[in-house]
Amino acid sequence: MAPLLEVLGPLGPSMDWWMWGLLLIPALGIIGYLLWWIVPTITIWYLRKKALSIGLNKANKLWQKVTDEDN
Fold first, then answer.
1. C-alpha 70: how far from chain center
2. CA 34 to CA 23: how far, in whole Å?
């Protein structure tokens, strides 16, 4: 039976339309799995960096207030 729609692949034989779906599902799964590991890592790194800078700024302001009152 002839396929309903053939898409010519650059590296291989022509593929039927449903084969693209079979390739797309695992590809999206792999991409999702990688993002599941990468995005939280970047988010935690950014939030720690931001919290550290905010904490240092507040500590510096407090230190300046304490030292100014002593003089």
1. 49
2. 17
pLDDT (tens digit per residue) in 22-65: 889 999 999 999 999 999 999 999 999 999 999 999 999 999 99
The pair of structure tokens assigned to 31 is: 């991409």
Q: Is residue 11 within 8 Å of residue 18, measured between CB atoms?
A: no
Predicted confidence at residue 14, as pLDDT, reads: 66
Q: Is the pLDDT of residue 71 over 60?
A: no
**Strand pairing report for 6-7 and 15-16:** antiparallel
User: How far apart are the C-alpha atoms of 1 and 3, rounded to whole Å?
Assistant: 6
User: Burial code of 27-56, b = ≥16 C-beta within 10 A, e = fewer?
Assistant: eeeeeeeeeeeeeeeeeeeeeeeeeeeeee
